[in-house]
Amino acid sequence: MDDSVAEHSRPLRILIADDSDSDRLILKTLLKRLGHEVLDVANGLDAVSVFQREAPDLVLLDALMPVMDGMEAARQIKLLAGERLVPLIFLTSLSEAGALARCLEAGGDDFLGKPYNRIIIEAKIKAFNRMRLMHRTLSDQRDLIRERNRQLTEEQEIAKRVFDNVAHSGCLDASNIRYHASPLSIFNGDVLFASPRPAGGMLIFMGDFTGHGLPAAIGAMPVAEIFYGMANKGFNGQDVLREINQKLKRILPTGMFCCGAMIEADFKLNQLQIWNGGLPDGWLIRTTGELLALPSRHLPLGILAPDQFNADFERVGAAPGDRVLMMTDGFLESADSAGNVFGEQGVTGTLDRLDDGDHPFDAMMSAVHRFTGNFEDGDDLTLCCLEMMDEAGLATLPDRAAPSALAGPAEWRCSYEIRERTLGEFSPLPLLLHICMEVPGLRRKSGEIYTLLAELYNNALEHGVLELPSEWKHSPEGFGRYYAERNRRLANVEGHYIRFTLHHSLKPDGGRLRVICEDSGQGFDFHNHPSVAPGNSPTMSGRYAGRGLLLLKRLAETIRFHEQGNHVEIVYDWQFARTAENRDD
Amino acid sequence: MPIQTRRYDDGQTLVIRIEGRFDFSTHQAFRDAYEHGDPHIRNYIVDLSDTTYLDSSALGMLLLLRDYAGGDSAGIVIENCNNDVRRILSISNFEQLFNIR
């Protein structure tokens, strides 16, 4: 404020161009008496060159002058001034309207009639000075905003690169995932992560933080770290969700939260588990054309305290080729030029019209483009489609685990037992896998190791401790019954335990991991079991039915049962890199 | 004024009524509506009969009110939602936190 007051009273540099010596002298004296600094010339050409050299604040030009007249000088001076506002007032005794208009067209801002009136001159100079200063303030502010905006964009670009490194270490590029997330979607608060699970299958998380800009982006980092860190170690979707919720509850202010959905795909069991808290309906699109909505059934993440948080997933069977589609509400809010939104009708309409050959992802993207008519406006959205596939396709998943240069422990042994209540509350698999992954030679085999541990553990828990018959899982109704009964029986496991003993030793060409899994269950008659007795093909009955035992047999060197069948021992050998690669086909 | 408040005769219930769009632009007015109230208020009614639209920042503001009113023990009723508003509240499963009628 003080600055501008000073500006207003500061003397101006004024350029006068008039070929009449007497008029010029009168004007010059008058302006000097008002306290201004005056430069004076006698023709247009000199006016232009003095303007260029002295950069005056204001120019008074006679319309008719020799060498170069006022009109031409005005044009050139305005050109030189560029964005700067230099008021240009014509001095004229002309009174014909056409001539006056030409003065303004040439770039003049006003006229002063001859002979001069001191009061009018003073008033006009003040008025034009105010306008000049306001113009300068606005230009300065505009430049400042432009500069700040450039800075912000640059900072966002850097933040985005950091975020990319953290967020996109997963398997979003896998052949069975299609997605759209605008490059700066992180600043809309959208996140999308995907990770292969060590046991096979995939975990996908889509999230949408409240708000926009930096506040919305800031929660994304810890979520990415938790997701990738835990998924790599074999934690399941429930555990990851609980951890994310707890973290966000702690770090986000009340009123900020994250709508999200977690999808856990198991290509072995042909099963999907879904948790949706606050995102629009997801859709399961079966190869048969059947559509199943996957609605939000939970509060968003970061609202409820850990003890109130519900991480129950919905479980649905899904065959290879079935696809799940998830989106953030930016997708539903994509608007056309009249402000109408694509909405749920847009989504269901598109899905209803799907033809056999259409990929739902492509159909959805082109429907929303058609609707908005302008892709730029509709770019604040995230859409992701996951396709179920054959277990065999797992081999193509990218393995991004960075190799470690450290030599890990080679000769070790450990025993870990979980008991009673903990059987229902805690999975020992991530911990056990973590211990095994300390051996660099085993790290490349994390998927196989996890599968071995998981098969042993699940068999010990579900068939050993809980005595659940696996036949139930072979029909859709039985499937539900199996899991309901599993939860019921887990509440009643007094006196039960599962004990793992791991033993690792080096061999000349690699190493050997011996895993013993014992449980407190009844065991089974392995001597007469069709899939244990040599030479027999496995049948679908009893403990270790079907795939479980086959997997163990395929992955391990040997598998042996002891005592009454509740003590299983497997041996897993690995070779140093070159040999090992030859074995991988 | 897009946000109006009135008090029940019992002096313990505050009605907050939001007109038009309930989004970030109403943030300050919404907070003012309950934060400077008198200490006798026990119950809150958020009247959305004239609310045309509600976004996620409004959901956040409702959570702020819930915290202010005592968290899990807060007595808050959200009433008279139109279908669109109701839909947004139910996608986020806010029935679990608020009495919506």
Automatic annotation (TrEMBL), chain A:
InterPro entries: Bact_Sigma-Reg, CheY-like_superfamily, HATPase_C_sf, HATPase_dom, PPM-type-like_dom_sf, PPM-type_phosphatase-like_dom, Sig_transdc_resp-reg_receiver. The modification 4-aspartylphosphate is found at D62. Keywords: Hydrolase, Phosphoprotein. GO terms for molecular function: phosphatase activity. Residues 13-129 form the Response regulatory domain. SUPFAM superfamilies: CheY-like. GO terms for biological process: phosphorelay signal transduction system. Signal peptide: none annotated. PANTHER family: STAGE II SPORULATION PROTEIN E, STAGE II SPORULATION PROTEIN E-RELATED. This is Response regulator receiver protein.
TrEMBL record, chain B:
This is Anti-sigma-factor antagonist. The lineage of its organism: Bacteria, Pseudomonadati, Pseudomonadota, Gammaproteobacteria, Pseudomonadales. InterPro entries: STAS_dom (IPR002645), STAS_dom_sf (IPR036513). SUPFAM superfamilies: SpoIIaa-like. It comes from the Bacteria. Pfam families: STAS (PF01740). CDD domains: STAS_anti-anti-sigma_factors. Residues 14-101 form the STAS domain. GO terms for molecular function: anti-sigma factor antagonist activity. It comes from Marinobacter manganoxydans MnI7-9.
